[in-house]
Design goal:
Oligomer: single chain
CATH architecture: Single Sheet
Number of helices: 2
CATH topology: q64v53_bacfr protein fold
Structural class: alpha+beta
Distance between the termini: 15 Å
Largest sheet: 4 strands, antiparallel
CATH superfamily: WGR domain
Helix content: 25-40%
Strand order of the largest sheet: 1-2-3-4
Order of helices and strands: HEEEEH
Shape: elongated
Number of strands: 4
Number of domains: 1
CATH class: Mainly Beta
């Protein structure tokens, strides 16, 4: 939960400075399970609001991409924070 508070504080401070974080890449590497994965989250403007792009796959490969549409930038940022927190709980860093 502390991570969520830190991210919210970071997002609000960058907003005041006139820019926002738009992309985050998380990785999960476990040599014992032969696992090396990435998960990328990216907020971008879209024709009808804002989009949250999610891409994931093994490191070194092109990823699977899914896009969620949101009416406002704030809603897209909240979705990014929620997914980022969820992935950190499952072992991504």
């Amino acid at each position: 939960m502390q991570c969520l508070h830190d991210l919210a504080r970071l997002a609000s401070s960058t907003r005041r400075e006139g820019y926002r974080i738009t992309a985050r890449v998380l990785t999960r590497i476990d040599d014992h399970r032969n696992m090396a994965r990435f998960y990328k989250l990216d907020v971008q403007p879209a024709f009808f609001g804002w989009s949250l792009g999610k891409e994931w796959e093994r490191l070194g490969r092109a990823g699977t991409v899914r896009i969620e549409l949101h009416e406002t930038r704030g809603n897209a940022d909240i979705a990014l924070i929620s997914k980022w927190t969820e992935k950190q709980k499952s072992g991504y860093r």
